[in-house]
Amino acid sequence: MPEEVHKAAVKELGRLKRMAQHMPDYSMTRNYLDLIVELPWSITVKETCNIRKAREDLDADHYGLQKVKRRVLEYLAVRQLRGDLKGPILCFVGPPGVGKTSIAKSIATTLGRPYCRMSLGGVSDQHDIRGHRRTYIGAMPGRVIQALRNVKVKNPVMLLDEIDKLGTGIHGDPGAALLEVLDPEQNSTFTDTYLNLPFDLSQVLFVATANSLSTIATPLLDRMEVIHVPGYTQEEKVMIGQLHLLPKQLQEHGLSSDILDMSKESIATISKECYICV
């Protein structure tokens, strides 16, 4: 825990000891101290990156998408050679169900880092990113700090899911707040309004997903490298169903291929009648 944080915690603990438990500020101060204690100020996991294994993992989990997988491997290889995190933020863009989220999970698995997801769909208040002032009733930290509290390390792979669904409301622009989170020149001292203490986000590996680029603000888009993930053809959907989805469902339900088997024709019929999500 940094010295500045330690001093703030000791000060708040002193206030808490002087309060009666029935006072309104007691539970608020207690929750604040719990947050300080539970945040991973200096907890990291050692990164491991084996490019050959990364290729095997991507091939095992994702059918096709050769250009996408090649770019992900290039990105990981460059990071390994440079030894720092100040590369572009990957943004996977494509229709629902093509594997954008699972690619982000594969990156986390390859690097040996914990994975966490921050949903941005429908967020229209900057306080959802930056947090609320503690003086407000029901105040809480922003989603970034909450995610780090839950994942318990300061260098996870954090998925910014549906970044194109960010809105703008009467309480400020969440996109502008997110810029501060993603800017490598600023995020080493990111200050959540609720926490009111600087937290180093520079070791977080951010990955974003979107269905479309048209609604993403230009300053935010400039921070990211866009990788288009195309939709699947009918033949590819059948192969995905046969090689990935069906075996996975059989395993999850304790069944074997001897008990249940489906032909390509059956899978093709299902994929035409309902959208196969991968």
From TrEMBL:
Record-level Gene Ontology MF annotations: ATP binding; ATP hydrolysis activity; ATP-dependent peptidase activity; serine-type endopeptidase activity
Gene3D superfamilies membership: 1.10.8.60, 1.20.5.5270, P-loop containing nucleotide triphosphate hydrolases (3.40.50.300)
Matches recorded under Pfam families: AAA (PF00004)
SMART domains (UniProt xref): AAA
InterPro entries, per the entry: AAA+_ATPase, ATPase_AAA_core, ClpA/B, Lon_Prtase, P-loop_NTPase
Occurrences of domain AAA+ ATPase (ranges): 86-231
UniProt keywords, alphabetically: ATP-binding, Hydrolase, Nucleotide-binding, Protease, Serine protease
GO biological process, one term: proteolysis
CDD domains, per database record: RecA-like_Lon
Xref: SUPFAM superfamilies: P-loop containing nucleoside triphosphate hydrolases
Protein name: AAA+ ATPase domain-containing protein
Organism lineage string: Eukaryota, Metazoa, Ecdysozoa, Arthropoda, Crustacea
